[in-house]
């Protein structure tokens, strides 16, 4: 009985503290940017298959702390899908200008989903895995 009460107390405490599960998928807009030194501490180029996720997702990822280079989201794979085309990319950066479910891709990654002349894609589905 004690174990059950302890577990229930734990769950209630999580909700009382405002715990929310990490965002691991979404639908939003995709843009592209010129990579350089990313928030994860590495330097990338336009030909790398990489992505920057929104500040809310980056800083809200479980285990994220004061040093963004040590954020556990860094190096995670994300699959983005748009109009039947998909690309797998690695999370290396934070996108301060992105809304919650928006992503910012490298030019090489964006090009696998659509022509760069599109500039911005709406309805991009993504999954972090």
Overview of this protein structure:
- This protein has a 6-stranded mixed barrel with strand order 1-5-2-4-3-6.
- The protein has a single domain, classed as Beta Barrel (Barwin-like endoglucanases).
- A hairpin with a 2-residue loop joins strand 3 and strand 4.
- The protein has 129 residues and is of the alpha/beta class.
- It is built from 3 helices and 6 strands.
- Helices cover 22% and strands 32% of the residues.
- It starts with a helix and ends with a strand.
- InterPro entries: Expansin_CellWall, RlpA-like_DPBB, RlpA-like_sf.
- This is RlpA-like protein double-psi beta-barrel domain-containing protein.
- Keywords: Signal.
Low-confidence stretches: 5-17
CATH fold descriptor: Barwin-like endoglucanases
Strand content: 25-35%
What is the radius of gyration? 17 Å
Counting helices, strands and paired strands, the structural category is alpha/beta
Secondary structure tally, helices? 3
- Separation of the first and last Cα atoms: 37 Å
CATH superfamily membership, which one? RlpA-like domain
Taken from the alpha-carbon principal axes, the silhouette is: globular
Question: How many beta-strand elements?
Answer: 6
Q: Tell me the count of domains.
A: 1
What spatial order of strands do you see in the largest sheet?
1-5-2-4-3-6
H/E element order: HEEHEEEHE
**Main β-sheet: number of strands, strand sense, barrel status?**
6 strands, mixed, barrel
Which class in CATH terms? Mainly Beta
Average pLDDT metric:
89
In the CATH classification, which architecture applies?
Beta Barrel
Q: Percent of residues in helical segments? A: 10-25%
Pfam family, one: DPBB_1
Protein name: RlpA-like protein double-psi beta-barrel domain-containing protein
Keywords: Signal
């Amino acid at each position: 009985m004690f174990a059950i009460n302890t577990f229930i107390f734990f769950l209630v405490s999580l909700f009382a503290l405002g715990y929310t599960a990490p965002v691991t998928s979404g639908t939003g807009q995709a843009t592209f940017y010129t990579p350089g030194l990313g928030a994860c501490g590495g330097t990338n180029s336009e030909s790398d298959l990489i992505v920057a996720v929104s500040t809310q997702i980056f800083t809200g990822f479980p285990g994220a702390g004061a040093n963004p280079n040590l954020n556990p989201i860094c190096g995670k794979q994300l699959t983005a899908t748009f109009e039947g085309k998909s690309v797998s990319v690695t999370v290396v950066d934070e996108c301060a200008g992105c809304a919650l479910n928006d992503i910012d891709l490298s030019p090489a990654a964006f090009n696998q989903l659509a022509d760069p002349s599109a500039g911005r894609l709406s309805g991009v589905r993504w999954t972090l895995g």
